[in-house]
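Q: What residues go here?
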């Protein structure tokens, strides 16, 4: 404990040394008045002498030094001091004690004040929890405001009934005029006009009748106005609230012509058309992707510059009207037209255009998306919002050139710019985008970075109860599985699958077809750590002791690994196949496709039907077959290929046949090559039928399939058939097709300009954009194994043809590249397409 204050210590020692205080038998200080006042002791644990000597001590020392002390009385201790000096000592001692008491009293008062002040700052547990709830509360997202006030059908129906009755009543009242000659002339002018009366039966719905009566009333009032009048007096038929009720009724009944009739009625009445009403009608035209009627609506009812929502809907209508496999050139032209008029579209319009460009899966469209992003920051919106940042980070996962893979460096740069430099709060979609970009790179350092960001997503921004603001969804887990399968990290993939199975997620967040596809791909890329033929044989135990259990007949078979599904990943290819077959069988059982009744116990996956929401698709079956292609024999793969499609009720696609042919092309020496040839013959017939019926196949897949089958024939010493296959390929896809260069669109012009209907600032160079229209071709690397076998067989004619055809494709491809680099772009003018120099 701390020492006592110096003043309190002085007061205590002075009282102890006072003559009125004496020590008792037990050593405690007792006062002369029967212990009426207790002595103050030092604090326990304090050591050392007092901070400074007591005030009476110097006086006693002076008396001794001056020799003023007299003789002592016998039997009594203490000095014999004169009475006057003793009185003086008592008075000085009393004054010092009083001063010390005053100081101690002031110290107590100050301590009480500090305690009271400290008591005011103490919060209760409830108050502290409320404070932390406010500080750590997750921000609420702002709700978008509706363009048109919310409709109340009952109130609108009452309003329309009242309008109908008023119009019918007005039509029966006589007109009152003060100028008789003018009245007679105007009545003669409008004599032919028919006006409905209360006796005239009105057919149709209520809003149709109101529109008919209003137009008739407006026609009559316009006819009564003098034709020589230079100023037009506004005719107020309805109030703005009544016009909005009539417009809402027409829109709710999806009658856009009637809604436009209401807008036309307001225009004839010289009333300003409400922005909400025009935007609501334009929204319906945009939903229907009717570009013509949307632009006619803007041309007829728009008086000034279109508002931001109207510009967005105008561009969005063009985007929706463009097929997904084509570049939305008309939408880009409208977007740049608004920029030229000084009225750039809102940021969400650029986001929609960029998303539409990336959805085409064309390299030139992806390059244009990045160019539009940089152009927007230059001419319209320098700082993107979180939604646009998310879209661009997601675009980094699908690079412009598919051969180069994803671009994790660019994604992390955008992530740092958004979160650190701009200080924006990311969303779950933003986290998913950056994790996916890192995962699809296929590089271990970036995949680990993706998992680190996922951990940061869970740990960051927790509220007072520890709940994270960013809860992972199925897209997050799919992104993590993308990274795990590319580096063959089966342990992480199994952990993610087990976590999803243990959770109580429903159809929206449970295990689905995409999750299982990634899991099967991870098993395919997984490299088992144990290889049987590389195992060291222990001395004294020959191969008979370590023979495979599959070949042992005397020993009882070991329990399948699929019934355990331990936490340790499979160590051999056989164990991989056991786990994969158990998972696939469990999916069949949970989805009701296997009615044999033999339930499969998969350990941690036992219990409820956790895989009941998995839908069997072609790509799921392809991923399951890929595991067999990698870890099983070719015979087992061929047997499964012929049975699995009918079992799950799916149809193979081009990738199914391509992967089967490429597996046959990797067959090993011996009997497997004969099995591969028989399997490839069956698959090749299906591929040729698919290639003849569908012209929209990917050119790279076409050439890969032909190369794979040619390699199968070559490995089985059928050189003439392989050579005939190459000739048939060259006849169907001649090298001359490569010289046909497509026209360069005008928005890809590279001429430096500050104004134009194209991006003015680009992020992609012309040589960075691959050519997606290159027809199928054969290079020498594809025909190298055939060339070697022809040389070994001495087939001179075949050797010369292989050299010729490979060089022909090579030079045609080089000429195409030069033509593309020198191509001129075309700018769309009012009178047609005019070439513009690059």
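A:
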């Amino acid at each position: 404990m701390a020492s006592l204050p110096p003043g309190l210590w002085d007061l205590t020692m002075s009282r102890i040394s006072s003559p009125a205080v004496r020590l008792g038998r037990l050593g405690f200080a007792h006062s002369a008045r029967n212990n009426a006042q207790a002595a103050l002791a030092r604090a326990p644990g304090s050591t050392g002498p007092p901070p400074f000597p007591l005030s009476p001590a110097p006086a006693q020392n002076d008396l001794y030094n001056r020799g003023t002390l007299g003789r002592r009385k016998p039997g009594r201790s203490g000095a014999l001091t004169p009475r006057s000096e003793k009185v003086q000592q008592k008075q000085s001692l009393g004054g010092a004690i009083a001063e010390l008491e005053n100081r101690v009293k002031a110290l107590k008062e100050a301590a009480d004040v500090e305690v009271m002040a400290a008591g005011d700052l103490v919060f209760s547990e409830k108050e502290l929890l409320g404070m932390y709830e406010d500080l750590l509360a997750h921000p609420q997202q702002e709700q978008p405001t509706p363009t048109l006030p919310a409709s109340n059908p009952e109130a609108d129906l009452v309003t329309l009934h009242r309008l109908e009755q008023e119009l019918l009543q007005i039509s029966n009242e006589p007109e009152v005029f003060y100028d008789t000659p003018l009245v007679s002339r105007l009545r003669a002018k409008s004599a032919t006009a028919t006006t409905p009366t209360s006796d005239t039966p009105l057919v149709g719905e209520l809003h149709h009748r109101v529109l008919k009566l209003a137009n008739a009333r407006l026609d009559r009032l316009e006819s009564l106005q003098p034709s020589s009048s230079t100023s037009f007096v506004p005719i107020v038929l309805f109030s703005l609230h009544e016009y909005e009720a009539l417009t809402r009724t027409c829109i709710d009944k999806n009658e856009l012509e009637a809604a436009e009739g209401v807008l036309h009625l307001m225009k004839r009445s010289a009333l300003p058309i409400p922005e909400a009403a025009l935007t609501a009608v334009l929204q319906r035209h945009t939903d229907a992707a009717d570009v013509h009627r949307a632009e006619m609506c803007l041309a007829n009812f728009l008086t000034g510059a279109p508002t931001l929502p109207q510009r967005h809907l105008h561009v969005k209508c063009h985007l929706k009207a463009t097929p997904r496999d084509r570049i939305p050139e008309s939408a880009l032209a409208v977007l740049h037209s608004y920029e030229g008029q000084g009225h750039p579209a809102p940021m969400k319009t650029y986001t929609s255009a960029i998303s539409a460009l990336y959805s085409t899966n064309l390299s030139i469209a992806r390059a244009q998306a990045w160019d539009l992003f940089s152009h927007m920051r230059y001419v319209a919106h320098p700082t993107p919002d979180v939604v646009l940042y998310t879209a661009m980070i997601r675009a980094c996962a699908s690079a412009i050139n598919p051969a180069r893979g994803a671009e994790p460096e660019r994604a992390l740069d955008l992530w740092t710019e958004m979160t650190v430099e701009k200080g924006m709060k990311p969303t779950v979609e933003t986290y998913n985008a950056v994790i996916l970009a890192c995962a699809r790179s296929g590089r271990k350092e970036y995949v680990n970075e993706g998992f680190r960001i996922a951990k940061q997503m869970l740990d960051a921004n927790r509220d007072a109860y520890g709940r994270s603001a960013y809860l992972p969804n199925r897209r997050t887990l799919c992104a993590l599985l993308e990274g795990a399968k590319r580096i063959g990290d089966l342990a992480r993939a199994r952990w993610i699958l087990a976590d999803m199975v243990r959770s109580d997620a429903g159809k929206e967040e449970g295990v689905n077809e995409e999750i299982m596809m990634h899991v099967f791909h991870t098993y395919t890329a997984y490299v088992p750590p144990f290889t049987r033929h590389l195992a060291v044989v222990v001395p004294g135990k020959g191969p008979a002791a370590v023979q495979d259990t599959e070949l042992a007949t005397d020993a009882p078979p070991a329990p399948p690994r699929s019934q355990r599904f331990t936490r340790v990943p499979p160590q051999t290819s056989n164990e991989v196949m056991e786990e994969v077959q158990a998972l696939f069988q469990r999916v069949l059982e949970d989805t009701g496709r296997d009615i044999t009744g033999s339930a499969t116990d998969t350990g941690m996956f036992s219990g409820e039907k956790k895989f009941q929401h998995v839908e069997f698709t072609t790509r799921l079956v392809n991923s399951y077959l890929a595991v067999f292609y990698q870890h099983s024999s070719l015979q087992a793969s061929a047997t499964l290929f012929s049975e699995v499609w009918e079992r799950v009720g799916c149809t193979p696609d081009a990738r199914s046949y391509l992967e089967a042919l490429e597996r046959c092309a990797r067959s090993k020496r011996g009997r497997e090559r004969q099995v591969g040839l028989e399997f490839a013959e069956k698959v090749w017939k299906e591929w040729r039928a698919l290639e003849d019926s569908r012209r929209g196949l990917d050119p790279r897949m076409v050439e890969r399939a032909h190369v794979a089958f040619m390699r199968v024939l070559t490995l089985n010493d059928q050189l003439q058939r392989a050579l005939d296959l190459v000739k048939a390929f060259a006849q169907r896809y001649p090298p001359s097709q490569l010289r046909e260069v497509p026209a360069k669109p005008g928005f890809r012009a590279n001429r430096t300009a500050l104004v134009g209907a194209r991006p003015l600032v680009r992020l992609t160079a012309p040589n960075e954009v691959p050519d997606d229209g290159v027809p199928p071709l054969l290079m020498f690397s594809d025909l190298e194994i055939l060339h070697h076998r022809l040389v070994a067989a001495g087939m001179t004619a075949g050797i010369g043809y292989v050299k010729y055809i490979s060089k022909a494709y090579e030079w045609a491809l080089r000429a195409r590249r030069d033509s593309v680099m020198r191509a001129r772009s075309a700018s769309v003018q009012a009178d047609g397409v005019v070439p513009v120099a690059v």
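A: Context that may help when evaluating the design: Residues 151-172+195-225+237-271 form one domain. Residues 420 and 595 are 56 Å apart (CA to CA).
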